[in-house]
Design goal:
The complex is a heterodimer. By secondary structure, chain A is α+β, with helices and mostly antiparallel strands. Chain A has a single domain, classed as Nuclear Transport Factor 2, Chain: A. Chain A contains seven helices and five strands. In chain A, helix 2 (25-42) runs antiparallel to helix 3. The longest helix of chain A has 24 residues, at 86-109. The mean pLDDT of chain A is 85. Residues 13-61 and 301-317 of chain B have low confidence and may be disordered. Chain B has a two-stranded antiparallel ribbon. By secondary structure, chain B is mainly α. Classes of the chains: A alpha+beta, B mainly alpha. The interface between A and B is large, with 64 and 62 residues.
């Protein structure tokens, strides 16, 4: 009797354990986050212009949960990452994140009536997938793919591909261009300047 | 005794499960030298009654670990190699100094002339009307797409284009509406041009050129400019300045529908010139790749039944 019970419990536990491995978890994660963003954007209580900061604050929480900014930074710098000192790495990640926020926040805040459709998940490797979605506006459709990585049991976005253009690759080309000639400090300086111009 | 043992196993498994469902813990999967005993200790901490304070603590510890880790190339498993390999999409740029000048010129042209005009136009003309105008010009540009499909031996694409042109011209009030792409007919616009055709034929992209007024092109894709000139009906409007006037209007209309896109891209870039060059190269590369995939798929039965084909099909659907 006890033996059977043991067996049952183990099987039951294994079954539950294996659930997250099913395809579609990443897609669900991404969809949940994006829906969260849309909820904030459409919230009538947050409509007035005075609530913009509050909206940004709410979006930041979702963003933090959705993106793996360290992975994102690493992939844009590739091997150059290894030449950055720990302090430089920390600063780079923070600066880069702020630059992205500054440039895309307004664009995202301008969305209201657009529909977002998630339709496919492509497996890239055992821990990486590409989740495909599109934004449907009144005049066009914009394909947006999220490349996600499984870390500590959580799917996080490490690259966004908009209309076939990978953000990571786009920044990689730009950073490579700078780091081929200059030291990491120079790149950080450029980023700082860019941020202060705002 | 066995029962208790199994309970311990269960608790362990449950902890692991909780973590797999997305609770942040200091338990890390991956190439770290943590000993097994350490892992068990840390996962034991991840019991369901973990307070949110603890969670945020462990979560904030995580990035620092990652920060100190070096960058490693993705370890690519054989079976995924083709998919995950990020193609080195680069474009040669021997004319960079000159291109940068023209890039600046086009940038000024956009901010000083095109954008203000498009904004004024946008304020006066409602969006549905502007979408109709866009449809109208898109319908007029049918010859280039039709010819490209034929040149790529994509006969179903050519037929789709011919069908779209007929239907949209007759039932879509001269192309103002786009009834063909509706759910009933489902004839989608073929996303192709002459530069792509050359690409499909195997012609390399050549180097990067920023044309004043016309913008970024590769040497190969410059054929689009020539093709557009010769087979775009608007070019045959007399007198010539009327033709260019119509072209300018088309551009203003198109711009009015995407104000803000250029600004966002430029704003986010560290070096806008390089950012646009890379975006152009990626965009064209993937379009041609998608086109090639489509052509292999619609190729006659010769290749059918091969597993590789089935996989491609899966990928596309």
């Amino acid at each position: 009797m006890k033996k059977q019970l043991t067996g049952l419990i183990i099987i039951w536990a294994l079954l539950i354990f294996s659930l997250p491995a099913f395809a579609g978890v990443a897609l669900d994660t991404a969809q949940k986050s994006v829906n969260g963003v849309l909820d904030v954007l459409r919230d009538p209580k947050l409509k007035p212009a005075s609530a913009t900061e509050l909206k940004k604050e709410k979006l930041r929480v979702i963003y933090k949960n959705m993106f793996d900014e360290v992975e994102f930074s690493k992939r844009t710098l590739t091997r150059n990452w290894n030449t950055f000192s720990p302090a430089q790495r920390t600063e780079f990640v923070t600066l880069f994140e702020q630059i992205l926020e500054n440039s895309y926040a307004d664009k995202i805040l301008s969305y209201t009536n657009e529909k977002v459709e998630f339709y496919k998940e492509n497996k890239l490797s055992d821990t990486q997938v590409e989740v495909q979605s599109k934004i449907i506006t009144s005049s066009k459709e914009i394909p947006i793919f999220y490349r996600m990585i499984l870390k500590d049991g959580k799917w996080k976005v490490y690259d966004v591909v908009i209309e076939n253009v990978s953000l990571v690759q786009n920044y990689r080309t730009q950073f490579n261009d700078i780091l081929a000639k200059d030291k990491p400090e120079k790149l950080l300086e450029t980023l700082r300047k860019k941020l202060n111009k705002k | 005794m066995k029962f208790y043992l199994s309970m311990i196993v269960c608790v362990f498994v449950l902890c692991a499960q909780g973590l797999a469902y997305g609770q942040e813990t200091s338990f890390t999967v991956g190439p770290q030298d943590e000993s097994v005993s350490q892992q068990i200790v840390s996962s034991a901490k991840a019991t369901p009654d973990l307070t949110s304070e603890d969670q945020s603590k462990t979560a904030s510890n995580n990035p620092t670990d990652e920060l100190s880790e070096d960058y490693h190339e993705d370890e690519i498993l054989e079976e995924y190699a083709a998919k995950i390999k990020e193609e080195k999409v680069e474009i040669a740029d021997p004319l960079e100094p000159l291109n940068r000048v023209f890039h600046e010129f086009n940038d000024k042209l956009y901010f000083w002339a095109l954008k203000p005009v498009a904004q004024g136009y946008k304020a006066v003309v409602p969006e549905p009307a502007r979408v109709s105008v866009k449809n109208f010009f898109s319908n007029l540009a049918f010859p280039a797409r039709f010819l490209s499909c034929l040149l790529q031996a994509d006969f179903s694409g050519a037929a789709t284009e011919a069908g779209r042109f007929t239907i949209n011209t007759l039932w879509g009030i001269g192309g103002l509406m786009d009834p063909s792409s509706g759910k009933e007919l489902n004839l989608q616009k073929q996303d192709t041009d002459l530069g792509q055709t050359l690409g499909v034929w195997g012609v390399g992209q050549g180097f990067y050129i920023v044309w004043p007024v016309f913008g970024p092109y590769s040497f190969r894709d410059t054929v689009i400019l020539a093709g557009d000139y010769f087979i775009y009906p608007v070019s045959y409007i007399n007198p010539w300045y009327a033709s260019w006037g119509v072209r300018a209007y088309e551009e203003v209309n198109a711009t009015s529908l995407r104000i803000g896109d250029y600004e966002a891209l430029k704003d986010a870039a560290i070096d806008p010139y390089v950012a646009f060059r890379d975006a152009y190269a990626q965009y064209r590369f993937k379009k041609i790749k998608a086109r090639k995939t489509k052509l292999t798929l619609s190729a006659p039965a010769a290749q059918q039944g091969k597993p590789a084909d089935a996989e491609l099909l899966n990928k596309e659907n």
